[in-house]
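Inverse folding, one chain.
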């Protein structure tokens, strides 16, 4: 079998889908994208295309190594997202060619169902209680929200009380009937991280995500010493070589590699295995589309240490299209009591509605995240 064509489709709300065609008629889908940089990743995918045309799609490991090492410069959000989407599509092709779901190519399922969580509140954590109430009606009991609005490197007791007050209200309203992660979203600088973690301690969040920016990873062990709250990070780390360092230094209880940013299934399965050796859990990051989610689920179903899966249904970013709008087999993504069953169709298990994708790609917006500024006019982490 040979790869004959790669086609990219930028689609609302902010995703990009990649279709890889082969000379035997089998087609694979991937989701190479960095939110807000879809066109840059698209260019990276098209730069890799001449190398891929004519190659055997079944030699996923060799193609991955050649894409990663062959260009001399390597790693980073753009190149690893391009490789990720191509990798996902290659696994999709291999599974379809052999008539088995990707998890069966990786040794089979370690679980019967996977625990999911949903976002509540938006860029600024608003109406969280109402959001939780609504999702609990459909059996969701695990949530994630932003922990703060803009936060200065050194901010006030009032800002801390505001952040903590919201969390206190959640525990007040729902007790231990629900669990929730708090995403600091990189908005909290090291001086404030310890203050906030200490203040949140009594409310026992399930985890705090990106307690500091990924470029401040050396703080993870120090922050972990100061709190019993499990710390999570990973959406802005792009290869096992980055995750190696945070595992060696300790501090993270949960790794959150993104299957569309960190080299795809081939790389993230390795990252999950590395984490297991350090007794660290994995909870793949996935605020994206259905192909990215499917790739996450195949990793979840073969990883003993996979504990939670993010999905974007109802997320504040999904303006203009929802998680399953481009999917024909919507029922396969049904959640039951906050869990999802394995995707059992051959390959990734996503039947892409190609017509819908083509139509939507005709006027895809160039999504950008907002540029936030503090009251003094300086740039604030979003
Ligand atoms: O945890 C999450 O989902 C992420 O922090 C998410 O909010 C960001 O990755 C966003 O998609 C960036 O544009
Ligand atoms: Mg996050």
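Residues assigned per position:
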């Amino acid at each position: 079998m040979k790869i004959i064509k790669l086609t990219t489709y930028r689609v609302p709300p902010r995703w990009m889908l990649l279709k890889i065609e082969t000379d035997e008629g089998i087609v694979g889908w991937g989701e190479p994208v960095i939110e807000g940089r879809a066109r840059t990743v698209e260019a990276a995918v098209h730069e890799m295309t001449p190398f891929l045309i004519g190659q055997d799609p079944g030699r996923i490991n060799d193609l991955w190594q050649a894409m990663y090492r062959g260009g001399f410069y390597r790693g980073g959000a753009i190149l690893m997202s391009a490789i990720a989407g191509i990798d996902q599509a290659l696994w999709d092709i291999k599974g379809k060619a052999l008539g088995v779901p990707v998890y069966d190519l990786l040794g089979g399922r370690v679980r019967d169902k996977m625990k999911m969580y949903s976002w509540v509140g938006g860029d600024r954590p608003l109406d969280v209680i109402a959001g939780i109430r609504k999702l609990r009606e459909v059996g969701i009991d695990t949530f994630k929200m932003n922990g703060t609005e803009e936060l200065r490197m050194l901010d006030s007791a009032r800002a801390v009380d505001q952040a903590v007050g919201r969390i206190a209200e959640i525990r007040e309203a729902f007790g231990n009937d629900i669990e929730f992660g708090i995403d600091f979203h990189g908005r909290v600088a090291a001086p404030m991280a310890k203050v906030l973690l200490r203040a949140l301690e009594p409310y026992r969040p399930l985890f705090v995500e990106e307690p500091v920016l990924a470029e401040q990873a050396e703080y993870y062990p120090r922050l972990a010493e100061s709190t019993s709250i499990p710390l999570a990070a990973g959406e802005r780390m792009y290869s096992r070589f980055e995750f190696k360092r945070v595992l060696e230094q300790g501090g993270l209880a949960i790794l959150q590699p993104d299957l569309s940013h960190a080299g795809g299934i081939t790389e993230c399965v390795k990252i999950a295995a590395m984490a297991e050796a350090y007794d660290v859990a994995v909870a793949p990051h996935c605020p994206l589309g259905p192909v990215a989610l499917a790739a996450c689920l195949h990793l979840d179903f073969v990883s003993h240490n996979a504990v939670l899966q993010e999905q974007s249904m109802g997320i504040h970013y999904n303006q203009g299209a929802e998680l399953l709008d481009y999917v024909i087999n919507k029922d396969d993504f049904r959640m039951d009591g906050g869990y999802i069953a394995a995707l059992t169709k051959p390959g990734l298990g996503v039947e892409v509605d190609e017509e819908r994708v083509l139509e939507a790609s005709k006027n895809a917006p160039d999504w950008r995240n907002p540029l936030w500024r503090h009251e003094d006019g300086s740039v604030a982490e979003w």
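The first strand starts at residue 3 and ends at 11. The longest helix spans residues 77-98.
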